[in-house]
Design a protein that fits this description.
The protein is of the alpha/beta class. The chain has a domain of 155 residues: NADP-dependent oxidoreductase domain (TIM Barrel, Alpha-Beta Barrel), CATH 3.20.20.100. Helix content is 41%, strand content 9%. It is built from twelve helices and six strands. A six-stranded parallel β-sheet has the order 1-2-3-4-5-6, covered by helices on one side. Helix 2 links the parallel strand 1 and strand 2. Helix 1 packs across helix 2 and helix 2 packs across helix 3. The relative contact order is 0.10.
Length: 303
Amino acid sequence: MSFGGIADENESLAMFRRCREAGINFFDCANVYNGGRAEEILGKAIADSRNEVVLTTKVHGAMGEGINDRGLSRRHMMLSVEDSLRRLKTDRIELYFVHGFDSLTAMEETLRTMDDLQQQGKILYPAVSNWAAWQIAKALGISERESIARFECIQPMYNLAKRQAEVEILPLAKAEQIGVISYSPLGGGLLSGKYGVNKKPEQGRLIDQENYTKRYAEQVYYETAERFTLYAAEQNIHPATLAVAWAMSHPAVTAPIIGARNMEQLEPSLAALKMNLTGEHREEISALSITPSPATDRSEETK
């Protein structure tokens, strides 16, 4: 997401190479990231290793001012996938994510379009991000009924401060054997060690970007960050490393998506690859934040 934005092309390519050195082969993108520039840089980065990497990109967000330049209509999806393929300089996208829910388009239309794109070989698997569990479950039912390609991967927000995915999305993924590539394990930097109740850096996503400012506006998130930073210090582990390792340790999570603005920020997240978080440590870390209520609100049945 940082490619072509807070990370210029040279920094982006350097981070890509470092990730490849660390053994990473999965790269997540979206057409809206920096107006398509992220896809262009990623396309350049994979030029000599295309068959060694797994690519994702997304469709839903506005790519123009027109009324049809957004959403999950057949028209927009068909045009968007061609644009993404061109920017990525590839003939296929392994996982093609719907990037949000479109209440103006029939779900059947979106899913049928995904199936057609798979049949054409332009995408290999449909995937979904930022949908509620009931929406995903409904889509799985439609795909089963119509005998068309189903969502094979879910991309939810998931970190120590934002644990709503534990209630229904992660159990759904586990039950249906769907991959989970969770995003924002650092909470936009909240869990990087830079934030606390009375502690904030001069700049950062939580400071500079309105959507992140709103997302983490409540004081409880900063209280969680402060407790977590102290815990990481006691363990002598970088908070970013621990935050990524915690997200990675959930049994339903295939892998968390990491991101950075530069090489310095990238390294602590990469270090999580070498961590094997024990069940005891996961429980200790989880206790630093509020566990979300169960879906039925029968809290007495929570184990």
